[in-house]
Amino acid sequence: MKRFNRKKDISPKYLLLFLSAVCIALIVMSTIRPGMMRGIRSITGNFITPMQRGVNTIGEWIENRMQVFDDVEKLKAENEELKKEVSRYQNEIERNESELSELSELRSLYDLNELYPDYNMTVARVFSSNSSQWFSEFYINKGLNDGVYEDCNVLSDKGLIGIVVESYDNYAKVRAIIDDNSNIIAEIGGNNVLSTVNGSLSNIDSGYLTITNIDKDADIEEGDRVVTSNVSDRYFFGITIGYVKDISMDTNNLTKSAHLIPASDFSDIDDVVVILDRKREVNY
To answer: I need a labelling partner for 31 at 20 to 30 A (CA). Which of 47, 133, 180, 218 fits?
Structure first.
């Protein structure tokens, strides 16, 4: 014997028909018996109106929260744009400061024209160095095509840097005065006392070079300026090399020695001036 299944689902089609019939009945009754419908409206209003108010309140709260969320997202987007704009301005400021610094340095280099008006000069940029600590040998971006040849003197805005030892079409190699292979015939002070300035990387670590072959009776003092001598066959006369410090008598009692504090900074060289004239001609 089959059992009747009371849990069988009601078809949506029948539910829709039922609700439609109820709606039609209510419409008809509101037309025929409007007084009866007022009671029904009163009863349903007591339930529906508070519910509607609650739904409206919840809706307004959700709308406000969504508005706040939208505002927060907009503020985040605007903040990101502002960060990018600040970063762009910072980069531009740093670039301008770098350009101003470079311009100031170049102006100082071009001021050398007033100190050495008789020489033809060109400004060059250092693009490589053989040492990470000291610019004892380095390369500049001017060469034979620019009139830069071997034995051209190289200067900073403070004084002598070195001399060109190799030159190619578009670049040249410079040996600095601090290099171990460098020695310069120099003059000290106003009395033009002859001496020799010796390059030394070990000494420059302590902040100085050595001056040797100074006559024992020479009248020199600490702080005297040391310049290139006219006796030199490679360096033009009168270019500042540095300043005297720590004068001492040699053990032979015939000569004196001293320390020289270089006028230029050899830890960081960016731009230099090359004197295109030479004291001696080198055949190519």
So the answer is: 47
